[in-house]
Task: inverse folding
């Protein structure tokens, strides 16, 4: 359930890549400008999950002076149970059944900044409202599918061949909080050891060239602070000896949210690994589960977090 006057905000770094890798670089401004053209036609949406759900950009504003674009994403799912309401005193229930073709809907505001984080770079900051069903797992293929469709063009490579190229986004949590600080306030839940292995018998198959082996190590309750960091470093060292390239640390923050961070086993101290940033926004007005329009007051509070 979403709170009435509070939302968490994810900080992402969005890299604008080119495919193939030797193609000319694209930038965020041209990507969002072309996306807005599709959105204005009411076509920036996609049915997913065999047509039972839909993700769309319902609103998209670009401010070239302030160098940012504001998106309002909407996700609806017909497979989610009908919402029900209970009278607080009597417990009497009231349900609101979905009509034919409808799905339970949620929305998420997002701010894409049009200038790279570092001058001349390819990574741009993104602030995304935390909303169930709308995260980078859905947004990445959704946006990339449209970028390939609307921004494909030809270029001449170093071998003087004419090839098609297009941009695509890659989302990564913007690293700004140390793992040590998160473990001071939260609790270590478990650690996963991750190893990618080549399958030499399938060398001829381009889509089946490796497998992933994962071992899960569960922490005892109330493992926090430096004790948690020491345990992570001990597991990391063991994982490195056994040929594991990464570990994934899963912790529960003090506010109750569960977070995870991937740490290379080659890092000297896991406690210094950077962790994805999340901040909370509180409002003095009620927030919709699915906003019909961009909430400018909410967006102003999001911008203030940067």
Result:
């Amino acid at each position: 359930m979403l709170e009435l006057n509070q939302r968490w905000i994810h900080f992402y770094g969005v890299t604008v890549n080119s495919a193939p890798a030797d193609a000319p670089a694209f930038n965020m401004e041209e990507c969002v400008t072309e996306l807005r053209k599709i959105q204005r036609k009411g076509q920036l949406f996609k049915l997913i999950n065999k047509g039972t759900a839909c993700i769309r950009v319902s609103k998209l504003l670009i401010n070239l002076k302030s160098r940012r674009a504001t998106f309002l994403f909407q996700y609806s799912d017909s497979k989610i149970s009908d919402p029900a309401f209970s009278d607080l005193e009597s417990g009497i229930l009231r349900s609101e059944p979905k009509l034919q073709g409808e799905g339970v809907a949620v929305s998420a505001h997002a701010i894409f900044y049009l200038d790279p984080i570092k001058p001349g770079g390819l990574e741009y900051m993104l602030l995304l409202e935390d909303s169930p069903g709308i995260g980078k797992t859905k947004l990445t293929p959704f946006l990339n599918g449209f970028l390939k469709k609307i921004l494909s063009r030809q270029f001449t490579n170093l071998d003087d061949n004419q090839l098609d190229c297009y941009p695509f986004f890659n989302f990564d949590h913007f690293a700004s909080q140390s793992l040590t600080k998160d473990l001071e306030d939260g609790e270590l839940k478990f650690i996963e050891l991750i190893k990618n292995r080549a399958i030499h018998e399938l060398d001829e198959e381009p889509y089946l060239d490796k497998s992933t082996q994962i071992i899960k190590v569960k922490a005892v309750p109330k493992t926090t602070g430096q004790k948690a960091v020491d345990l992570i470093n001990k597991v990391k060292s063991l994982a490195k000896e056994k040929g594991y390239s990464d570990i994934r640390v899963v912790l529960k923050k003090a506010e109750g949210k569960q977070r995870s961070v991937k740490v290379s086993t080659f890092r000297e101290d896991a406690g210094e690994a950077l962790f994805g940033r999340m901040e909370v926004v509180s409002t003095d007005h009620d927030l919709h589960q699915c906003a019909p329009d961009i909430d400018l007051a909410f967006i102003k509070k999001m911008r203030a977090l940067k």
The helical segments are 28-40, 136-151, 179-185, 225-241, 296-303. Residues 6-84+96-174+279-303 form one domain. The two ends are 26 Å apart (CA to CA).
